[in-house]
Specification:
The protein has about 300 residues and is of the alpha+beta class. The chain has helices at about 35-45, 75-85, 140-145, 180-185, 190-195, 240-250; strands at about 5-10, 20-25, 50, 60-65, 70, 90, 95, 100-105, 110-115, 120-125, 135, 155, 160-165, 170-175, 205-210, 220-225, 230-235, 255-265, 275-280, 285-305. The longest helix has 14 residues, at about 240-250. It is globular and about 55 Å long. This is PhzF family phenazine biosynthesis protein.
Length: about 300
């Protein structure tokens, strides 16, 4: 049996056993695609990352991201957590890595800056690899049926539910209250119907629901469901948060602005997460979306293949 080392961390939190758990394989050389998928399925976390030498030596590493059922081109918490692991392990494939990392991924090159506290790596900031892309609008009735709630709870005054992506596609929709958000329960069969109606959603129709308080419009609360990807609920979803932040900034009346957005997620699961986002808008165009979060280590071990 060949041992494969792994590290697990909780991402978008400073509290162990909160946030979103992530498994990182710091050296995935020699693993086949099938082995990577089998490992991700075994962990059954929302994602597992596999770190490989970069194709371009100017970059830090190649990073592949697998859910329990498929490889995905980009995701937020896997990048933050992987950067944290590599930042606390100063040698990667025999060379030192500084505070600026560059990951080669299917979605493109992902730039990462380590966050330090007293010199110690405590988290990371990543930049979304792609500009905001908008797909189909989705009816309030479809959103409500997916979440098992009353369609009247879906807010459409600011925007219709819509497919949005900065590297990975999500249906994003606003709800009218925290009570409605707490009541949401995914209906898997309806998700399958929604995916067939909206093939540009990426084929799995991941749903990101949020509540936006009037008194604090840039402090949101959210939940994310992706049952077709074997993720009934995700406690923190950086890629969805980034897509939503970019879209809301697009809707803001200012043509030139910097917006800081905080998204709290995972509360209903008992795994509170805090995702910080910084969006820059110039001449009405989103020029950057940065996703930041803290991390805490949980486990180290090895897998037998």
């Amino acid at each position: 049996m060949n041992p494969v080392s792994y590290v697990t961390v909780d991402v978008f939190t400073e509290t162990r056993f909160a946030g979103n758990p992530l498994a990182v394989i710091p050296d995935a050389r020699g693993l086949s695609d099938e082995a990577m998928q089998a490992i991700a399925t075994e962990f059954n976390y929302s994602e597992v990352t596999f770190v490989l030498p970069p194709e371009d030596p100017a970059n830090t590493a190649g990073v592949r991201i697998f859910t329990p059922t498929a490889e995905v081109p980009f995701a937020g918490h896997p990048n933050v957590g992987t950067a944290y692991v590599l930042g606390r392990q100063p040698e990667i494939f025999g060379r030192a890595s500084g505070d600026t990392l560059r990951f080669e991924e299917r979605a493109g090159l992902v730039e990462v800056s380590l966050i330090r506290d007293g010199g110690e790596v405590v988290g990371a900031t990543i930049r979304a690899p792609r500009p905001l892309e908008l797909g189909d609008t989705v009816t309030a009735e479809t959103i409500a049926a997916c979440a098992s709630i009353d369609p009247a709870k879906v807010v459409t005054t600011r925007h219709a539910p819509i497919i949005a992506s900065v590297g990975l596609a999500f249906a994003v929709a606003e709800l009218d209250s925290l009570e409605a958000l707490a009541a949401a329960r995914p209906n898997v069969s309806v998700f399958a119907d929604a995916a067939s109606l909206h093939p540009r959603s990426g084929g799995d129709f991941s749903l990101f629901l949020y509540v936006r308080p009037v008194e604090r419009p840039w402090s949101l609360r959210a939940r994310m469901f992706a049952p077709l990807d074997n993720v009934i609920e995700d406690p923190a979803t950086g890629s969805a948060s980034a897509a939503l932040a970019a879209y809301l900034a697009t809707l803001a009346p200012e043509q030139n602005t910097d917006i800081h957005i905080t998204i709290e997620q995972g509360v209903e699961m008992g795994r509170r997460s805090v995702i910080e986002l910084d969006v820059n808008k110039q001449d009405g165009i989103i020029t950057k979306v940065d996703i930041s979060g803290r991390c805490v280590g949980v486990m180290r071990g090895s897998l037998s293949l």
